Amino acid sequence: MDSPPSPPRKIIHIDMDAFYASVEQRDNPDLRGQPIAVGGGGPRGVVATASYEARAFGVRSAMPGARARRLCPSLIFVPPRFEAYRAVSAQVRAIFARFTDIIQPLSLDEAYLDVTENKPGIASATRIAEEIRRMIREETGLTASAGVSYNKLIAKLASDQNKPDGICVVRPDQGADFMAAMPVRRIHGVGPVTAARMQQLGIETGADLRARDLPFLQAHFGSAAPFYYRAARGQDDRPVHERQGRKSISVEDTFFDDVTDRDRLVAEIDRIAANLWGRAERARARGRTVVLKIKFADFRIITRSHSLHAAVASSDLLAQIGRDLLLAQLPLRMGARLLGLGIHNLEDDGDEDGAGGQLALAI
Questions:
Q1: Catalytic: which of 24, 53, 83, 110?
Q2: Which of the residues 1, 32, 121, 171 has an alpha carbon 20 to 30 A from that of 363?
């Protein structure tokens, strides 16, 4: 006898509104109501986050600082304070933990929560989302937007529907229609190149995507086709992972000015290696492979790796391998926008105590 189908999950996606900029405006009253950008305002700087006042002028994340100033001459650039952002992120995650332990952080400012079964025993996921938003507002002075649905794909899309400080609920019987109206370029998992290819095939919306059968999608998009096929129908069975098995631990930093100087590059790798070793220590994990990541000013990325017969045994050894990998690439063909270092082929001996998301946020 077939068992009855499982009831739909109750998934919430919480996304803090203009997070870095909102923290700066909260902490500095002179910035409230002003168009601000967190990041580098120099000719080679980049916007990490813009306030909603700046977004009204077309200023966006990852935009070059010079272009942002042209769009908004009164734009105020504020240097980032990552320790402050991490502290607020920890506050917000503590609020999440009052409702569920099934939390999957995506970054400092957003996370999935599975509240199908929750600590207070509240039947309505919508009510939980509203309670979380209220607590965030009262305890941090900031606002968050929420998407509530029966799967991760739709919950994440829904959280962006009524920003800022909004909520969007998509119930199981509404999922297919919600996806039908969605521009494919907004579907997570459809990058700019794929979106352009879809446009060439006459696929602009979820409804257009749903009109194509699986063999057609496989012919044009290969192994990604099943995901697109299900997404167009509002289907996503990925669970929220509160703790995922680690395959690697990494730390990376993005610079607001592209770096070419040899001494500074080496100093940055040493600092990143120290942070990475601290994270590996807290995770009680060791790995045999060290991977260097460099993102250039044109956003091209290269990785280089070195593997040992046994796990990296010390912070000094990790830093030395990182320096050797970096020095082998010098001189760089152009400035480095990002440097990262990772330990792969992990031998886990536990989970990181009290840490979530990336130690150093890439912008």
A1: 110
A2: 32
Residue 91 CA to residue 19 CA, distance in Å, equals 13
Contacts of 4 (CB under 8 A, 6+ apart): none
Structure-block tokens of residue 192: 């700019």
Q: Does 351 count as an annotated binding residue? A: no
Each residue of 105-125: pLDDT tens digit? 888 899 999 999 999 999 999
| Residues 9 and 58 both lie in one domain | yes
Strands of the sheet with 167-169, listed across from one edge: 103-107, 110-114, 11-16, 144-149, 167-169
Please tell me the chain's helix, strand, coil percentages from 3-state DSSP, rounded to the nearest 5: 40, 25, 40
160 annotated as ligand-binding: no
18 near 51, Cβ under 8 Å?
yes
* Domain shared by 252 and 156, yes or no: no
CB < 8 Å & 24+ apart, contacts of 225-232? 227/189, 228/187, 228/189, 228/190, 231/153, 231/179, 231/187, 231/189, 231/206, 232/179, 232/180, 232/206, 232/207
- Shared domain check, 52 and 65: yes
Q: Is 110 a catalytic residue?
A: yes
Torsion, Cα of 158, 94, 144, 232 (10° steps): -10
CA distance 54 to 33: 10
Distance of CA 269 to the CA centre of its chain: 23
pLDDT (tens digit per residue) in 255-291 = 877 899 999 999 999 999 988 888 787 667 788 899 9
In whole angstroms, how far apart are CA 338 and each of 41, 192, 211, 299, 335?
17, 21, 41, 9, 9
Inside any domain, residue 363: no
Reading across the β-sheet that carries 301-307, which strands appear in turn? 248-259, 336-348, 285-296, 301-307
Domain span at 221: 175-232
- How many angstroms separate the CA atoms of 210 and 207, rounded? 5
